[in-house]
Amino acid sequence: MDRGAGFSAQLDTASDSRLGAGKWGLGPTAVALKIDGQWLYGGLINNLWSVAGDDARADVNIMLIQPFVNYNFPDKPGRYLTFAPIMTADWEADSGDQWTVPLGLGVGQIMKWGESPVTSGQRILQCGNPGQWRQLATEVTSAVVVSQITNDVAQ
After folding, report:
1. Dihedral angle over CA of 3, 34, 86, 54, nearest 10
2. N or C: which end of the chain has fewer CB within 10 A?
3. Rounded to whole angstroms, how far apart are CA atoms 111 and 91?
4. pLDDT band with cut points at 50, 70 and 90 for residue 7
5. Residue 18, SS3?
6. Helix, strand, or coil here: 147?
7. How far is CA 35 from the centre of its chain?
8. How many separate helices (H) and strands (E) can be counted in the chain?
9. What's the pTM value of the predicted model, to 2 decimals?
10. Mind listing the pLDDT tens digit for each residue in 107-133?
11. Do residues 100 and 91 make contact, with C-beta atoms less than 8 angstroms apart?
């Protein structure tokens, strides 16, 4: 099992007060994961507390928990099934409004466009209290090939 720990930071960079908390935040974070054949599973957890910012804005005390389980189909390279809800708890919110718990189910395909890996997929989300709102999201994500950049710099 691989694991790591460190710190997370929230930067007060929002250009509009509706887009951010107006606070700087810091907190611990930890992750653990294991690859076992076609399976990848583990979890991520962190908590952020406000340390500076606009005194007129509410303090920040937010926890994030993300368990994840991925199954990679052996007969379809790059295809996967995932369960990875990003659950949050806002400890400053009123009772009953503190937790957001999405379903986090999805299916996707990793492929290459040129040299860049690209992930496309769909996720089923259910956020907030049951029945509050539901969403089916389609996503396409591209990644920078960091290992190639690292190798070029090392040489």
Report:
1. 10
2. C
3. 40
4. very high
5. helix
6. helix
7. 19
8. 1, 10
9. 0.73
10. 888 877 777 777 776 666 555 555 555
11. no
